[in-house]
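From the methods appendix. Each design record in this collection lists the tokenized structure first, followed by the designed amino acid sequence. Records were kept in a plain field format so they could be parsed without special tools. The example shown here is representative of the layout used throughout.

RECORD:
FOLD TOKENS (206 positions):
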């Protein structure tokens, strides 16, 4: 079975990725599970650039397909911050509870129509032959008045989805994977990989 290494150490993200890619005849492992250690400087100015940087750097250490994503939250009222700095917003080691509260504080008193926001996810696939595939997707929403929900991670508790009238941290795993930025971008990448590799076109159970 072909193996894909996903360049992340985020357990919540890996759980989502494995769920979305469960129907592909491929083993999906994290960097840690693959025994790869790397400290990569994400110095791109866009989500796509950062995803490509991570994927290509890790690909230098393996002959497997390497996937990497760069995702983040854009808040229109804050000039699309934190954006590509979402993971490093207020410091890399700052808990998301603090980051979320800081955003809520900045939007204190701001009406709903001006609290528009989106999650963005770019995914890059570095292939063994040196080619790099990329996809990008978004989910539109708005920033709530307070954190809600326990099912997500990161900024999920403050990001509200109009369709469900709840935060992404209140959605079930299935609901979130169906509509999320990462779910959309990953499904696009699955299609590109299936177009590239014949053995990835078959269902996992065949």
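DESIGN:
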């Amino acid at each position: 079975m072909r193996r894909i290494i996903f360049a992340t150490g985020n357990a919540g993200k890996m759980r989502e990725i494995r769920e979305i890619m469960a129907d592909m005849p491929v083993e999906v492992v994290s960097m840690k599970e693959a025994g790869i250690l790397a400290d990569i400087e994400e110095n791109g100015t866009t989500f796509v650039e950062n995803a490509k940087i991570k994927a290509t750097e890790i690909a230098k250490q393996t002959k497997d397909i390497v996937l990497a994503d760069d995702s983040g939250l854009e808040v229109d009222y804050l000039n699309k911050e934190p954006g590509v700095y979402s993971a490093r917003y207020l410091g890399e080691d700052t808990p998301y509870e603090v980051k979320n509260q800081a955003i809520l504080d900045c939007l204190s008193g701001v009406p709903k129509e001006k609290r528009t926001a989106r999650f963005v996810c770019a995914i890059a696939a570095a292939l063994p032959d040196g080619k790099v595939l990329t996809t990008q997707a978004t989910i539109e929403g708005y920033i709530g008045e307070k954190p809600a929900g326990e099912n997500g991670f990161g900024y999920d508790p403050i990001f509200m989805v109009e369709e469900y009238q709840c935060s992404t941290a209140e959605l079930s795993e299935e609901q979130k994977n169906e509509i999320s930025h990462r779910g959309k971008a990953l499904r696009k990448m699955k299609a590109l990989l299936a177009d590239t590799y014949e053995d990835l076109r078959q269902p996992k159970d065949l």
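APPENDIX NOTE: The beta strands are 2-6, 26-30, 65-75, 81-82, 116-126, 132-143, 159-161, 166-167.
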